[in-house]
Amino acid sequence: MDQLVTTLINALRGIPAELIVFLISLLPLLELRGGILAAGLLHVGMIRAFFICLAGTLLPVPFILLFFRKILDWLRNTRFVRLVRRLEDKMNRKSKQIEKYKTFGLLLFVAIPLPGTGAWTGSAAAALIGMKFRHALISVVLGCVVADVIMCLLAYGVLGSIL
């Protein structure tokens, strides 16, 4: 992930550091984990980075929750049928972890700052299992806050100074 974030930072040179951090936070797979890493590399303060990354990561969440199933249904009628099936299989595997504990399970799933467990995946899985919008949104937002706190503590060395 470090190399990808560094490549993106270099590709986006010339625009303000905060905007780079925001844009990286918007991207699936990288999300706030990549944004916090970029913020550290670009010397953006921890508090500022926290809020920029949280905003960037949360921006697509309502759209994913509302439209993910509709987009998959539409794609099922195109030549991307195989892609849709693979994506649904992957999401269904992730959904099983979430479905067991519903709202709290989604929160935990999103809160764990590992690749493939962020807001994009959690929102898509919630949409696939038909979770209520309000419950899914609250879980994803709280999960992102927890993940953001963890990543800030790790990236900015706060945990290192305590331990």
Automatic annotation (TrEMBL):
The chain crosses the membrane at residues 20-41, 47-68, 103-130, 136-159. The keyword Ligase does not apply. Keywords: Membrane, Transmembrane, Transmembrane helix. Pfam families: Sm_multidrug_ex (PF06695). The keyword Transmembrane applies. It comes from the Bacteria. This is Small multi-drug export protein. It comes from Caproicibacter fermentans.
